[in-house]
Amino acid sequence: MTKILTTANDKKPHLRYLDGLRGIAALYVVLVHIEPSIGEQVPALLEFFTKTLRYGRVSVVIFIVLSGYVLMLPVVRSGYVSGGLLGYIKRRSRRILPPFYGALFFCLFLAATIFALEQFTSFQWDKVAGAGPFSPKFSLIDVLSHLLLVHNLSQETYMSINPPLWTVATEWQLYFFLPLLLLPIWRRFGLTSVVIAAFLIGIAPLYLLNGLFKTASPWFLGLFALGMGAADIGFSEKPNLIAIRKSLPWGALAIAFTCVGFLTEWRKLGLDIWINESFFGLAAACLFIDSTESVINGKKPRLIVRVFEHPWAIALGTFSYSLYLIHGPVLVLVRYFLFSLRLSPGIFAVTSYVAGVTISVLVAYLFYLVFERPFMSGFLKARKVKDAVSLQKTKV
Questions:
Q1: What does the alpha-carbon distance between residue 38 and residue 345 come to, in Å, rounded to a whole number?
Q2: Beta pairing partners, 15
Q3: pLDDT confidence of 12, banded at 50, 70, 90?
Q4: What SS3 class is residue 180?
Q5: Among 43, 59, 319, 386, which is least packed, fewest CB within 10 Å?
C-alpha cells in the first residue's frame, strides 16, 4: 500500500509514520507527568517502571525536530513558503492557537471553580493530593504571559498554570524564525550554514548573556534547523544532497546518536543540557531521513517504522497536540479523586497510570473535536481517527 498520500488539492507528502511518532511521543509525556506516589514506597517493579519515565524532554526534542521537518517539506518541494509570510502566519496561528487558548481557559475555569469552592465551602486545595502538571494557584502575570505566549521566557512564569504549555510558546516563537531568518540563510548559504547559524544563535544567550531565556530552551532553534536539514536531504533534487542521502547509513547514525545522547545525559559528566538534547535531535533527524527513504522507495519498513505506522499509533497522533495540551489538569483531577479513596501505595500507583492515561486520552479526543479539528485545513481534516483505525482491516 502506498505510504505517501496526496490529494488533488494538496500535494504535500503525508508520511504516516510521523503521525504515529507524534502519538507515541505524546503518550510518553502523559506517562512522565503521572504522579504515582502518595508519599510511601511503591512496589519495586513499579519503581523500575517509573525510572524509565525520566526522558520526557526527549519527546519534546522529537516534537521540535519534527516541526522543522514538516514545515520545511513544502519549501523543499516548491522553493518558497506558500501564501507568503502572512499566509504562513495565518496557517500556523489557526493550527496552534485555538487549542492552546482552549486549554488555557479550561485551566482558568478549573482554577476559578477551585477558588469558589475554597471561598464558599469547607473545601481547601490539598497540594499533596493535587501534585502534578497543573496548579490552581497563580498570578495575573502568569495569565497575561500565557495569553501573549511569552511565559516560557521567565523563571517565574514558565512552569505556572499548566507546565507543559511552555513548549508551545517556544514552538510558536520558532515559527517566526523560519521565514524571517532560517530560510534566508538557507537560500543564500545552504544547508550546513543554516544549521550552524541556528545553533550559534540558540546557545549564544547561555554563554554571552548569562543564561538569559534559558527557560525557553533557545538551543531548540538548532534542533528545529536539524529538522529542516532532514527534510532538505530527504527530498532535495540537488546532486550533492542526493549523494549524501544515498551514501550515509542513516539508520545506524540514528542509533549511534541515540546512544551518545543517553551517555551525555549522565549527570556526573556535568555537560550542559543543550549538548545532550542536540544528540537526540541528530538521532531524530537521521531517523526521519532513513525512514522516509525506505517508505518512498517501497522497501520493507524497519520494525520501528512498523510500530509508528500501527493504526492505533496513527489514531493517537491525530489528536496528539490536544493530548499534550490538556493532559496536565486531567491527571491532577484523576490523582485528586484517587487520593480521596485512600488506596494502598501499589494500587494507587497502578490505578494512577491506567486511569490517568485512559481518561486523558478520552478527554483529549473530545477536546480535539471542539478546539482543534474545526481549525484544521481540509487536508488535515481528511485524516480522521476512524480512517486510521480502518487501515488495520486493509492490511488483513
A1: 7
A2: 4
A3: low
A4: helix
A5: 386
Task: Answer whether residue 178 shows pLDDT above 70.
Answer: yes
CA distances from 347 to 38, 41, 52, 333, 350 (A): 11, 12, 19, 17, 5
Residue 3 lies in a domain: no
Task: Summarize the confidence of residues 330-346 as an average pLDDT.
Answer: 95
Pull the grid cell for residue 339: 487520593
Q: How many structural domains does the chain have?
A: 1
Residue 65 above 70 pLDDT? Answer: yes
Which pLDDT band, with edges at 50, 70 and 90, does 381 fall under? low
Q: Is 252 a member of any domain?
A: yes
**Which of left, alpha, beta for 165 (phi over 0: left; psi -120 to 50: alpha)?**
alpha
Domain that holds residue 229: 16-395
- CA 57 to chain centroid: 9
- Decide if 227 contacts 66 (C-beta within 8 A): yes
- CA distances to 332, 337, 363 from 131, in Å: 7, 12, 20
Domain assignment present for residue 11? The answer is: no
The tens digit of pLDDT for each residue in 318-336 reads: 999 999 999 999 999 999 9
Residue 261, all three cell numbers: 545522547
Residue 6 to residue 303: CA distance in whole angstroms? 25
Phi and psi, residue 15, nearest 5°: -95, 110
